[in-house]
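Render this sequence as a predicted structure.
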Amino acid sequence: MLIQSRRPITGVNTDRRALLRGAGTIGLSAAAIAIMGGCESMAASSSASAQDADILNVALGLEHEAINAYQLGAESGLLEKPVLNTAVLFQSHHKAHRDALVATIKKMGGKPVAEKSMKDYATALNAGSLKSQGDVLALAARLEKGAANAYLGVIPSFSDKGLSQVSARLAADETMHWTVLASALGQKLPDKALTFGA
């Protein structure tokens, strides 16, 4: 079974559009990306700003949402065993993203945004409308595509190649998830190139 913690939200806007709006003016610091990429020594030698922590908190809010969406799906009883196994795998990816973001925000001296309650996520994601495995997969696919676009949206604001690389790696995970989910839903792959990040 999926496991998650329940903590109250601290008031940071966790909207994907907010992350994209910030892309033109706020970038992630080299310290943040170094920690996310597993290079603590580089992180220790770089400086970070409060704005960096703010944008990372928006990303963290998106990861909390994804973790809890998969939790709702798992607890719904609507997922067949192979699909449930994939949902658990994808949730573990989001937990790894969350853990990297939390460590980065703390290393920068910021306070990581807390998860909302499961009830809050259930309301925000309209969990009452989930009546079939297809409904759960469609919700997950929508969230994954939004997350991929959000991570891609911040890439142009980076002056450091390392920042772009880690954001692209996160977007790649989200895109992989979306592709698997879209396939499971029997959706046709996009006809045109450059579908994501537009």
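Summary. The two ends are 36 Å apart (CA to CA). The helical segments are 16-21, 30-36, 40-44, 50-75, 81-107, 118-124, 133-154, 161-184.
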